[in-house]
Amino acid sequence: MLLRVVIKRLLAMIPLLLVIATLTFMVIRVVPGGPFDQERNLPPQILANLNAKYHLDKPVLEQYFLYLGRLCHADLGVSYKYVDRTVVDIIKDAFPVSIQLGGAGLLIAVLIGVPLGTIAALRRGTHIDHLAMFVSTMGLSLPLFVVGALLILVFAIWGKALPAALWESPLHAILPALTIAFKPMAYIARLTRASVLEILQKDWVRIARSKGLSESATIIKHVLRNALIPVVTLLGPVSAVMIAGSFVVEIIYAIPGMGRFFVTAVMNRDYDLIMGITLIFSVVLVITNTIVDVLYMILDPRISYE
Amino acid sequence: MLNTGCARQSPWQPGILRVNLGTEPPTLDWHLSVDMISFEVIQNIMSGLTQYSNGVDGAKLTCQAACAKKWEVLDGGTRYVFHLRDDIYWTDGKKLTAKDFEYAWQRLIDPATGAAYAHFLYDVINAREINQAQIKDLSKLGAKALDDLTFEVRLNKPAAYFIYLTAGPTTFPMRKDIVEAYPGRWTEPQNIITNGAFKLDSWQHEYKIDLQANEKYFGGRPKIDKIKMFMIPEQSTAFSLYQNDQLDFIDNRSFTTSDIAQCKKDPNFKTQALLRAQYLGLNTLKSPLNDVRVRKALAMSIDKNIFPKILRRQETPMQSWIPPVLTGFKQDSGIAFNPEEGRKLLALAGYPGGKNFPRTEVLYVSREDTKLGLEAIQAELKKNLGISIELVNQEFKVYLTTRKLHPPHMIRASWSADFPDTDNFMSVFTSDSGNNYTGFKNKEYDRLVEAARGELDNEKRALLYSQADKLLCKENAVLIPLYMATQCVLYKPWVHGIDVNALDIQNYRTAYLEGSN
Amino acid sequence: MKEPQKRFLKQFSRMPMACGSLVFILIISVIAILNSLGINLSPYSFDQTSSDILQSPTFAHPMGTDELGRDLLSRVFFGSQLSIGIGIFTAVMSFLIGTVYGAIAGYCRGKVDAILMRIVDVAYALPDLLVMILIGVMIGRGTLGILLALGLVSWRGTARLVRAQFLQLHQEEFIEAARALGQNHLDIICKHMLPNSLGPVIVAVTFTVPMAILSESTLSFIGLGLSPPACSWGTLASDGWRSLRTTPHLIFFPGIFIFMSVLSFNFLGDGLRDALDPRTKASSKQFF
Predict the structure, then answer these.
(1) What ipTM was assigned to the predicted interfaces of this complex?
(2) How far apart are the first and last CA of chain B?
(3) CATH second-level architecture of B16-27+196-268+492-513?
C-alpha cells in the first residue's frame, strides 16, 4: 500500500512540474527586464544577435514549446550570465552544497527542536519550560541576517573559534548550519510542545497511564508518536524554506549554494537558470512531501490515502 | 592546509595572496565581458599590445609597451603599426604572433560573437559595417597581421584616444585554435590558454577563482605563486575575514561605510581617486524639469560637500562632468552651490518656496552608498528649496527597463571610464548615444565632441571639451554631477607592491608578501 | 455563550506573561496609530537630518542617530506603523484564506482534497522570492506590494495545518457521532471541527505576524524593501546590521523592538491557546 502511494505521488509529479514550468516561464517573462539589459546599452544589432543566439527573438509561445522540447531530453538549457555554462553544470556544482548545508541545518533543528518541545510540554509551567520556550522564541524573533552577524561576531571575531565565512571544511559549515537551523528549530520546538500538550489531554493517554504503563514508555509509544504528526507536516515546508531561504545564509557566509545562484539568476533574468533551479526545488519538495506522507501513514495507520 | 585562524599558525600563507572579488565574474571571454570583476581577473591572466603605466601619479595613466615593444602612428593618426616582442609565449608553449591579434579583433567585430564592446573598434576601417552585418567578410577589417611580429591598424579618421583601447581587455589577443576547439567552454580552466602574468588554475563558480604564477610570463615570473580570489558578496563578512587574517588585501567591496573609520586608523589604508562619476541625470523633456530654470535651481541647491562627510571615502565633490584629471576640465564649467540663487530661479519658474512643485521622482538601484547619498540629497532639497522629491528604488534590471521605456524625472547613475580619456565621458550625452537618458539633443554639443575626438592637438582639444562641458552642465543643466568615487584599499602589513589605478583595475603582477611571523 | 467567555477571560487574566504581552502590543499599536495620524511622539521628525552623524545614545537622542544624523527614536516610532501593520495584515490574510482552504480540503477529502493540495504544492514550489519580486515589480515598490507578496505566500502553511487537523478529526468519535446524528456539513465544520483544530492553527497564525515582520526585513536585506525615507523596523535592521561592530546602536534598537514584539505575539498566542482550549483547564498553571 505504501509503495502504491509513493508511486502515485511520484507520477503526480510530472503534471505538477509541467504546471510549475509553465507558471514560472510565464511569470519571468512578464517581469520587466531581460537577460541582456545592462548598464551600458548594447547596439541594437548586437542585442538582436544575442537574442537570436538564445532564440529570445521568437514569439513567447514558440520559446515555451522549444523549452518543453528540450526539457524532455533532460536539457535544462544554458545560462546567459555564466556565459555558455549549462544549467545542469551549475546545478551539479551548487546542489550538493545546498543539500549539505540544508541537511546539517535540518538535523540540528530536529535534534534540538523535538526534545526541547517535548521536555517543555512535560515540564509545563516550570522554569525548564519557560527557558526552553524563551530560547526557541529567540530563534524566531530576530532576522536571519542579524542572527548570522551575531554568531560571526561571537564565535569568529571575539572567540576566534570558528571560521567567519567560506566553505572549505566541515568546520566552516557549523556557523551557517546553526544560523539556518535557528528558525526551524524554534518552530519545531514550539509545535512539538503544543502538540504534546494536546495529546497528553487525550483519554487514551490517560488510559495508557492508568493501565500502569511507565512514563517513558507512554511518552514514546503513545504521546510522541501522535504528537509528531503535526510536526511531521512541517518538515516538508520547512525543508523547502530552508533550501530556498538558504539564500540569506549563503550570501552572509559566501557559500556557493543553490539559493545564491537562484537569487543571482532572478536578478539577472537568467531565464533558463531560474527555470532549472525552480524545477529542482519542486522535485525536492515533492519528494519531501511524499516522504512526509509515508511517515504520516507509519505514525498514524488510521490515515488512509485512497 | 586549512587555516582557521588558530593562534599558532602564521597569519598568512607564503606566496599566496587572498583577495575578494565580491561577485562572480560573468565571463572570462574578454570579448563578452563588460564589467569590472571580469576585467580584474582577465587583466591578471592576459596581456595586450600595451598596458597602463603604474598609477603612482594618481589618475594620469599612459600606455607603455607590453606585447608590442614599440608602435608607430602614421598617416596623420590614421594608421598604427605595432611591433611585437619576439619572446612571448602562450601558457601552452606556443609563440604569440600578430595573427592572434588579427583573429581576436575579427572575432570581436563579428556580429555572431555578440560582443558588447565591439563598438570600441568602430574607428577601424570597415569595423562598423562588419559588425552591423553590411559586410560579411571578416578579413575586410582594417586590422591586419603584416607578418608574424607586425600588426597594422588603419582608422577611418584620427582618434585621439585610440591607443588606450589597446591596453584594455577588449582588444587582447586570442587563440583561434583554442576558441574553436572548445566552443563555449574555452574559458574553463582546463581549456583556457593565456599569455599574462598569471594563469587560471581553477574556477569554483560563485565561490573562488585560483590563479597561479605563469612561469613563462615575458615580463618575468611574478613573485606571488598563487592568488585566491574569493567571491564574498557581503561586505561585512569580507571584513570579518580580513580581521581574522583570512584575506590579505581588500578594497571597497570588503568594508561598509561604518567600517571606514576603523580602517582609516590602519597605516596600510590608501585611497585612490577613480574615473567613476556619480550623477543625477535630469529628464529635460518631462515637466517640471523641462524648464531649465528648475534644473538649474536643483543643481544650485545641493551642497556636494556633504558626500565625503557622509560616505567618508574622500570622494571628490563635482560640479562639472569632466573629471579633474582629464583633458578639458575647468572648475567653472558647472554650477556652484548657491541656494539663494536657486530659490530665486525656482520662484521665477513658478514655484516660490517650493509651493505647488509637482511630484518628482528619482529612480535608483539600492546600494548602501547610493541610498545614503540620495537621502542626503532629498534632505538638502527639502531644506534649501522646500521641495520633496520621491526616491524610487528598483531592482537593477527593472531600473534598466524603466530608464529605457518610461524615463522618470531623474535617475541616479554612475559612469565608469573604460579608458582614461575625456571622450569616454562626453560621448555619453551625444544625441545618438545609447546611454543618454536625459532627452538632451544638442547639435552644437555633438559637433564639439565630434571635433574634439579627431583633434590631436591637446590644447585645442581641451578647449573644445570645456566648451562642451559648459554647454552640458552650466547652460543646460542636463545633469547634476555629484562626486567622483574613490577606491579605498586596506592590506595586511605583509603585503607589498600592489598597484591600483584610476580605472579600478588591480594588478597583482608586482605584488609580493614579506614580513615577520 | 456567557459562561465560556467568562472562563476565557478568567483563564487569560491568570497568565501575566500573556497579559503583559498584550499590553506591550497595545502600546506599540497606539504609537503606530498615532504616527500614522501624523502625531509624532518625539521632538524630531523621522526624516530630519542633522550634522550629528552616528551619535551614540545621548539625552537628546535616546537611541542615537544614524548616518545622516537622523534621530533613531523617531525612526523606530515611525517604523512601528509599517512593521505592525504588515504583521497583522498578513496574519489575518493567512488565517482567513488558509483556514477556509484547509477546511474544505480536509473535510471533503478524496478528489477535492487531492486537487486543492496539488495547488498548494504548486504554490509552495514557486519560490517566495520570485513571487515577491514579481509583485514588487508589478505593483511597484512600497507597502502595497509587500503586503500582497506576504499575503500570497503566507496562507499555504495554515491551509496544510488545518487540513491535517481535519483529517485527524475525522477519526474522532464525536465527529462520527455528529455525523450519525445527521448534523449538516457546515455545522459539523463550524461547531465541531474548527474549534477542535484551532489550537495548533492559532499557534501557527501567531507565528505569521513575526514571520511577516521578519520577511519584510529579509526583503530589505535583498534590496527590495521600502523606498526611503520611509522606514520600518525591518529596513532599519537591515541597514544597521552591518555596523554591528562599529555602531551597534543602529541594530540594537530596531532589533530590540522586533524582538520584543515577536516575543509578545508568541506569548499572546500561547495565552490565547491555553485560554481557548477548555480541555487544558485542569492543568492550567500560570505561564511564567
Answers:
(1) 0.81
(2) 17
(3) 3-Layer(aba) Sandwich (3.40)
